Amino acid sequence: MTVWPNPVEAWSWPLRGAVIAAALDAFLLANAMMAPAAQEMRARGGVGIVGFELIGSWTRADPLLDRWGVEGRGAARTTLWWDTLLFIPAYTALLGTLAGCVASHAGHRGWTGWADAAVVALYATGAVAVCDWVENFALSRVLSRDHKHNYPRIATTASTVKWLLLAAVVLTVATVALLFVAAPRR
To answer: What are the average pLDDT values for consecutive 10-residue runs of the chain, which has 186 residues?
Structure first.
């Protein structure tokens, strides 16, 4: 039994597969819908959404917004819209379900430490999503040129935490999953 409950443990294997498939489809659809807007942003200012996430200050944000113009800023808004409403929920469901499946499998093998690590990764996926939504809110305020707060710094901080947590989640899930290959069932 893990320290925190694994909500995926109660799901049937067909349900787990269906959630993974639906989340993967939504993830791919969101990427396809964001691609033209991302190309527009790069074409107008040389910076895509990740560069915008890490802009860090108004001193760097204002010239970028000027280079983008109305069309580039509109493309950034489109990207944020798809990211907020489809991409974030899709990767959260995908990674969270994968982490839950890996945790469940590790627990059944008696690998409680690895199961605990995967359950922590499942919950960390939710924290990644929250950081991404905070980042998107801050970026929307940057696009509106709301200088009341240091929204570029807020976006950069949320983005940095998001990327670090995401790397930890993916590394944990991949490590535990690869252990199943390396240590066959006895």
So the answer is: 81 93 96 94 88 94 94 95 96 97 92 94 97 98 95 97 98 92 71
For residue 110, is it left (φ>0), alpha (ψ between -120 and 50) or beta? left
With the CA atoms of 14, 101, 3 and 115 taken in that order, what torsion angle do they form, in degrees rounded to the nearest 10?
Answer: 140
Domain spans in the chain, listed from the N-terminal domain onward: 7-179
Residues 93/161, Cβ–Cβ less than 8 Å: no
**DSSP track, 28-64:** HHHHHHHHHHHHHHHHHHS--HHHHHT--SHHHHHHH
DSSP three-state, residue 27? helix
pTM to 2 decimal places: 0.90
| 114, 179 contact by CB (below 8 A) | yes
